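Backbones bend. Shown next:

***
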Amino acid sequence: MNKDVLGTALRDHFKGNSGDPLITYMKLNGYEEWIEDEMPLEYLFRDFNGMPVIEQRALELCRGKVLDIGSGAGSHALYLQEKGMDVTGLDQSRGAIAVSRLRGLKKRALAELKDYNGTNFDTLLLLMNGIGLAGRMEEVDAFLQKLKSLLAPGGQILIDSSDIIYMYEEDVDGGFLVPDNDIYYGEVIFKMEYKGQESAPFHWLYLDFRSLEKAAKANRFICELVSYGEHYDYLARLIPAED
């Protein structure tokens, strides 16, 4: 089992040796079957014009010293670097960090967010469902507190997610058949496959805005809805509340 399936795929694509797609599998809460999808690797190397409006807006709002959390191939961080900003890309994938270095990203950090204790930043950037790194609903508080510990005074968090309730079956009244258990419907299981190599399954979280707003308030953040995307997604900005 390849622990860095994403990194391997990114390396291959950068070197022109891919050809095979990166396949993702998602299992919804309460379901046994996996939902299969393909992610074109070129999408992970997109430039500013190829990014969704939500990502473009987030990049425009970045200021000061920036930490791009889950930086992947470095597309967001490289855009900011080209604009003259002081940006660091943080990712737990060794392959992703290697590719971002080869693409010219000057500042990089190989680590999981929970283990990272770098300097403080004016902007924390978490895109492509950045809230997913929390993993589970029960980890959101610790996740937000970790982010707060990395913020400089007056700093901000720019983060996106989606409300995936639309993926559940509808009932006769137009509602959704969400499993009757104690697990939030946005908690899913993910795994990735590339060239026959499969990652270990991992927890991933999609959080509706109201739930993010509630968690932010509980952790002493002011939560602002910046914009909605075209497919149930949104961009939010969190700023620590004054004591």
Notes: The chain has a mean pLDDT of 94. The domain at 5-240 is CATH 3.40.50.150 (Rossmann fold).
